[in-house]
Write a structure and sequence with these properties.
alpha/beta, Rossmann fold, 2 domains, four-stranded antiparallel β-sheet, binds adenosine-5'-triphosphate, ATP hydrolysis activity, ABC_transporter-like_CS, ABC_transpr_TagH-like
């Protein structure tokens, strides 16, 4: 049995072990400024590294395991570490320490405009994005008609995307991102962007797309959105996993954390 077929028979999985991520934000300069930054810091998330740089500890010792059927809500206040966690899962960030392992085809549905080249045409961007997502040129051409039809961009697809309005850009990126079936789907609230007509059209496509994924991780601030899509939750707080469990319990834990923080 080939490695690929063994992996396919095992099903999708995602596991993080003791993952930490930090960003250097300040080097040299006044000691007193550093001191006051560290003192006021974002609830203990600021630290200094071995080179005396101030760093933001965006994730600290995060361990999580997801398997087929998990529909995970990533919950937490601004700066809690949700986006950083999604980026580690997608392989965009390497952990400073710890390990992140995934099995199965991943579709990152966040930071989506990062993969768009504004100087090339809509058609070429579709091809580029398809290749980044791991499709062969033949698979991309097979899906092209469907993508083109969904975008409703017509002749605009022949010209550079820097000429597109933001709504047109949303249509293009959305159509491309949902054109193949991922096993692990990583999303944020980006999916809610767009005009009303587009959203109602997008709704059906998102539903089918999400249902087909083996694992979903969705970061959102909206309890309504999370209740609709997810069956379990992870509460992030200041870079750490504060709670993990049933969605309703996770939302309760979040309400408790936010009420305590605002007192
Ligand atoms: N590139 C970066 N450079 C420096 N600090 C960063 C960077 N990216 C994230 N951070 C910091 O890491 C922490 C976690 O940020 P992250 O974007 O993961 O939070 P979040 O939970 O997604 O927040 P939000 O709900 O506001 O989007 C924050 O303190 C943030 O300022």
């Amino acid at each position: 049995m080939s490695k690929a077929s063994i992996e396919a028979s095992l099903g999708a999985a995602l596991s993080l072990e003791n993952v930490s991520v930090s960003f250097p934000i300040y080097h040299g300069g006044s000691r007193s400024l550093k001191k006051s930054l560290l003192f006021r810091g974002s609830g203990g998330q600021l630290a200094t590294d071995a080179n005396d740089r101030i760093t933001v500890e965006a994730l600290r010792h995060v361990s999580l395991q997801f398997e087929v059927g998990d529909r995970v809500a990533l919950i937490g206040s601004n700066g809690a570490g949700k986006t950083t966690l999604l980026r580690v899962m997608a392989g965009v960030y390497e952990p400073v320490s710890g390990t992140a392992r995934t099995r199965g085809r991943i579709s990152p549905m966040f930071d989506i405009s990062l993969g768009i080249d504004s100087e090339i045409s809509g058609y070429d961007n579709i091809r580029l994005r398809g290749l980044i997502l791991g499709l062969s040129p033949e698979e991309i051409e097979e899906r092209m008609a469907d993508i083109v039809e969904f975008t409703e961009l017509g002749d605009y697809l022949d010209i550079p995307v820097r000429t597109y309005s933001s709504g047109m850009m949303t249509r293009l990126t959305f159509a491309v991102a949902t054109c193949f079936e991922p096993e692990i789907l990583l999303m944020d609230e980006w999916i809610m962007a767009g005009d009303a007509a587009f959203l109602s059209k997008a709704q059906h496509r998102v539903e089918t797309f999400v249902e087909k994924a083996s694992i979903l991780v969705l970061a959102s601030h909206s309890a309504e959105v999370l209740k609709r899509w997810c069956n379990k939750g992870v509460l992030m707080h200041k870079g750490e996993v504060r709670f993990e469990g049933e969605l309703a319990q996770t939302l309760d834990a979040y309400a408790e954390v936010t009420s305590r923080d605002t007192v």
